[in-house]
Amino acid sequence: MSDSFNLPLRPLTEKRERPDPLPVEIAQINAQYGSFRDVTEDSLRAKIEADKNKDPWFDKEENDNASADEDTTERLDQLYKRRAAITQFALQAHMEAMFALDFVSLLLSKHTPRQAEMSMSAYLKQVAPLGSLNSEIVNPPPKPESAARDTKNVSRGWRLQNFNSAASKLLDSATRLEAEVASETRYWDEVLAVKEKGWKVSRLPRERQALGVQYGFLEATPIFRDRGLAALRRTNDGSLILDKGLIPLKARTVRVRVRSRGQITGCSKNQPASDNTESIESRILQARDTVYEEELFHELVREARILGSQGVTTRQNLVQFPVSEEQEVLLDLIDSDQISPENDVVSSNEHAVVADALAHAIRILLAYAHRQNLRRRTQLPTPLTPKRRQTPEYQLLRPVMAYLQHSSHVRWLESLLNDINQILKSAGITCDFTATPFSSLSLRRTISGLPKVEALVQEFLLPYESTFSAQLVTPQSSFRVKVRTNVTTPPLGTHYEISVNMPQYPDVRPPNRIGLQDEAASILTHFVLLDILTAITHAKGSSVKGIKQETGHLLTWQAAYPHNGELLALSSTGQHKKMKVSLSRHELTVRVYSIRGIDGFGKPAVDKTPAMRSQTWKCDGTPDQPNLMDFIAEVSKE
Amino acid sequence: MHELLLFASVPAHQHHELLQQLAGLTAMQPRHRLERRLIFKAYRKPGLINTRVGASQDLQGNEMQRLNKMLNGGMFYTQVVGPVSEADFGAQSSAASSGDPDAPMSGTDTGTNFEYHPYSYENQPWKLEFRDIPEAGTRSAVTTRLMASASLPKGDITTPMNAWGYSFVTEYVVEGDVFILNDIVIYLHRVLHYPAESSGSHEPRRQLPPFQQMSPLEKTGSYVLQASIAVQDGGNQEMMKTASQHLFGLREQLKSAVRLEQADRLSLDTRAK
């Protein structure tokens, strides 16, 4: 290869000794142009120019132009005439061919009469008997020397011409091949570069000559799996193009937005497009991302359809689900260059983090679903039955919704308990609230036989559970709230399970499962109220010490109607007192009335007398307020 | 349940290459599988046959007829298959030295000094696999046979099998890799023999010899490629056709690598003479 050698392709034209051609040429010029006097350089140049411009078919065209002027009847006439002429020529040709056939047949009939007879015309058979013509080879007379030389020259010229054309054809194809080799080299270099990056390059299944690159996901739904293969085609100059067939080239992506009170308050960020969009690598990456995003959206819509009962709505290109009363999440598939559409402006970035987290979460969940598909695919298959197995919807929206719903409930409950705690604290009561949100998640748990990643994601597919517990004022009283959110299996939604331990009211049991926030709130405040009442009835022993010296004896409170928050203190002097305690999320109020007697039904007839004392504690905690026990002691004085 | 099969013989030198090709075709990593296979033979228990031939007045109930048919029908060899792992092999060497008296001993076993070791015969799960002789006279180019599988209790299997009228014949090990392609199970395997046993034991082994001592049945070490597909309802012609078409599709795809073909019917005869 190193030492290239040159092969002369064009025939060498040797200059031959010729007889001086001048006299011949002079004679020719005289014949062509007349006297030499008329032949000037100018006239010759003009002639050359004229020859150059003249079209070889010019004469004919002139005729045609002339005939075009004739009108249609004449043209029709001419057409018929010409046709007749053509027919005549054809007939003549036929006749001549028949004559030739007859001649040859007659000639052959000497040797093979049977065969020759078949091709003879009837007329010839009549007039000439078979085998009446013979042929024999005669030696032609020797050709004159000049004729032989002419033939030789002509054939030599022909050969030269053929060599020349062959040589130029070869040279042409050599240059073409060279260009082809260069572009082919470039193509293969680029294909190799793609392969070295780790992409799977293979033959296309349908088009066996073409190469393709596999960038899709093997475990995706078949339509998206098949789209993960694109042909690597060569342009004329050898650069690589990614041919995805009919699929549009645009990059698309799923966008997550959070809308609160009709305003977009968060939008997931697009990953920045790679800077050199022209390189084949980035094209492949973009194609891969797009196919992933489109599959993601497809699966989101598929899942959203079965979640109609849970408030998920779908439009043509939008999936929407509510998180709470005033917040909802919108998912749509957009072109990635269309970053912020003009119609809905992002009013704040309050929930941008949430939107981003959701965007990441659904993608992780899709990848998890792909892994599950692989797992399912490589299990031993069940026997064939006519019923086809339906692929279940992936869990993409459900875990996300469950998480959002759960955390909103947990946050609400936490704030409720905090408020109550604040109120109690300002009233001088200490309770002990502990909250463990998402207590069901244990990220350190490992499931044998599952890779770490899958075990991690699986945690988030289980029902969420958070627990809250509180030690109340009275010893041994406590309650415990479990918040469970379940989106995949019924019972759907979030519910509260409250368990109470109150020795004073052993028959008080909360309902099994509470679904509404208000209900849960009222039950919890009720328990705290009952507990405060218990504390007040027990208060005497503990708080008495400071005041004992002054008064001598205090009233004892008894819970008359604990569920209404009413306490009664009976005094030996007949000056009974009644206390009404009410607790809400915002305040704790204690009112003390004095009553004169108890009516026949044991109901104190109070209502006409104005409130004697009243005290309210709010969660902001005014500093110079007496604490509840002091207040009780105060009002307990007779 | 019916099973449709195609077989091919794979020489040892092609094994690695074919594994790669199959991994590419099925887009999955091979699942290595080691199985102990025990062969049991059915025998007729004396005294169970009570055919009352000729008594036309004695109308047999449907149930009775079925029972008789079952009892007097053909006798078959069946296999009991238990998955094992490579670590289970050769575990006996450690067992011989460590005499652990607290190990769960099996009461029935008295002859061998069986001790606790990584391979526990008592916890060996088993599966009963019944395969009929392939159907005769089918025009299709696949082997079709009736099959049934059932899970069996763990541990010592000879006692229940004896109670059901099966006696232990012999055992061997199958080593191979499994691939799944849609509904087709591709099993590239070979049969391994235990090292020559000293005494003709009529019990399944309680320990396994070191894996290196196992010798392939086929001396050249060649493998068998088995492509199978199970059909729930063998009477459903449509499904049987679909299944065999799937197999033919696979045969076409593997044409350049191996030649999958129907097995000789009589070589898969499981009837006990």
Short structural summary:
The complex is a heterodimer of chains A (638) and B (273). With 638 residues, chain A is of the alpha+beta class.
Describe the protein in words.
- Chain B: Component of the Mediator complex.
- Chain B: It is found in: Nucleus.
- The complex is a heterodimer of chains A (638) and B (273).
- Chain A is 43% helix and 18% strand.
- With 638 residues, chain A is an alpha+beta fold.
- Among the domains of chain A are: 93-131, no CATH class; 209-337 and 346-376, no CATH class; 394-523, no CATH class.
- In chain A, the strands form 4 sheets. In chain A, strands 6-5-9-8-7 form a 5-stranded antiparallel sheet.
- Chain B has 273 residues and is of the alpha+beta class.
- Chain B has an 8-stranded antiparallel beta barrel.
Question: What keywords describe this structure?
Answer:
heterodimer; A: 638 residues; alpha+beta; 5-stranded antiparallel β-sheet; 15 helices; 18 strands; 43% helix; rod-shaped; B: 273 residues; Hypothetical Protein Pfu-838710-001; 5 helices; globular
Largest sheet geometry of chain A: 5 strands, antiparallel
Strand tally of chain A? 18
CATH topology of chain B: Hypothetical Protein Pfu-838710-001
Approximate shape of chain B: globular
**Which structural class fits the helix and strand makeup of chain B?**
alpha+beta
Task: Note the run of SSEs of chain B as H and E.
Answer: EHEHEHEEHEEEEH
Give the neighbour order of strands across the main sheet of chain A.
Answer: 6-5-9-8-7
Which parts of chain A are unreliable, with pLDDT below 50 for 5 consecutive residues or more?
541-552
Q: CATH H-level name of chain B... which superfamily?
A: Hypothetical Protein Pfu-838710-001
Rg of chain A from C-alpha positions? 53 Å
Q: How many distinct folded domains of chain B?
A: 1
Overall strand count of chain B: 9
Q: What CATH architecture label of chain B applies? A: Beta Barrel
Rg on CA atoms of chain B, Å: 22 Å
